[in-house]
């Protein structure tokens, strides 16, 4: 059986440049849709978070920003069906990523607050990319690679092709203009070859070897389906 590790943010807020904290967590579709598709494929999923803290759903992701009402209802129903698993995640420092066929990071603004700076996650990612084993990060989650550094201080993902939420897309959020920094620029400054789709808020997936990234929430299905196709 294919074993998958979902690494999910434990953050409940995103600190903006004016000092205010925007309530956040994980983005509903970005966790629910890949989880559903992988489960339907017969894959086994383990959820882990920093400190083993139960992750918080960003309620904004089930509002108008989460798509049409029917779609939002479906996503919420699926999350409700796996709530027991989400309520009892494994502490990230207790998992060995080598035990998993795929490591998957769903997004939301939460990773901008915790995973971007988490040394445990950073070391996991460094080992994973060094071993060239399947790794996927979606939307804001690619920010986690900023914590993956080599002994010489360089980023372990420098030179790799990746996507993630673009600055243009971030600024479509009214609070996005208050960000201290932006994912796209941070990845580029780390030496990563950032790529994005021609149009904002449209599905876009970048694949560089065993490294899979999706640009935005709209890429959740496409990213999971690409991984499933490559694993088949």
UniProtKB/TrEMBL annotation:
Keyword Transcription: no
Superkingdom of the source species: Bacteria
Keyword annotations of the record: Lyase, Stress response, Transferase
One Gene Ontology molecular-function label: transferase activity
GO CC annotations on file: cytoplasm
InterPro entries listed in its UniProt record: Class_I_gatase-like, DJ-1/PfpI, Prot/Nucl_acid_deglycase
Gene Ontology annotations of biological process type: methylglyoxal catabolic process to D-lactate via S-lactoyl-glutathione
Keyword set includes Ribonucleoprotein: no
Residue ranges occupied by any DJ-1/PfpI domain in the UniProt entry: 29-229
PANTHER family noted in UniProt: GLUTATHIONE-INDEPENDENT GLYOXALASE HSP31-RELATED (PTHR48094:SF11), PROTEIN/NUCLEIC ACID DEGLYCASE DJ-1-RELATED (PTHR48094)
Family, as annotated: Belongs to the peptidase C56 family. HSP31-like subfamily.
Protein name: Dimethylallyltransferase
Organism name: Kocuria varians (Micrococcus varians)
Lineage, opening ranks: Bacteria, Bacillati, Actinomycetota, Actinomycetes, Micrococcales
């Amino acid at each position: 059986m294919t074993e998958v590790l979902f690494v999910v943010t434990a953050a409940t807020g995103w600190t903006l440049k004016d000092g205010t904290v925007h309530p956040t967590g994980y983005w509903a579709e970005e966790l629910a849709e890949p989880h559903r598709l992988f489960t339907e494929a017969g894959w086994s999923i383990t959820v882990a978070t920093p400190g083993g803290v139960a992750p918080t759903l960003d309620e904004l992701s089930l509002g108008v920003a989460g798509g049409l009402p029917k779609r939002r209802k479906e996503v919420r129903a699926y999350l409700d069906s796996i709530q027991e698993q989400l309520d009892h995640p494994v502490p990230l420092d207790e998992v060995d990523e080598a035990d998993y066929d795929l490591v998957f990071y769903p997004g939301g603004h939460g990773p901008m607050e915790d995973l971007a700076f988490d040394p445990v996650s950073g070391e996991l990612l460094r080992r994973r990319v060094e071993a060239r084993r399947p790794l996927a990060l979606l939307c804001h989650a690619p920010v986690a690679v900023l914590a993956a550094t080599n002994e010489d201080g360089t980023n372990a993902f420098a030179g790799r092709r990746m996507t993630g939420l673009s600055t243009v897309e971030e600024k479509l959020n009214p609070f996005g203009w208050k960000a201290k920094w932006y994912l796209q620029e941070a990845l580029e400054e780390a030496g990563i070859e950032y790529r994005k789709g021609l149009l904002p808020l449209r599905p876009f997936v970048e694949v560089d070897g065993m490294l899979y990234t999706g640009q935005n929430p709209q890429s959740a299905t496409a990213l999971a389906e690409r991984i499933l196709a490559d694993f088949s």
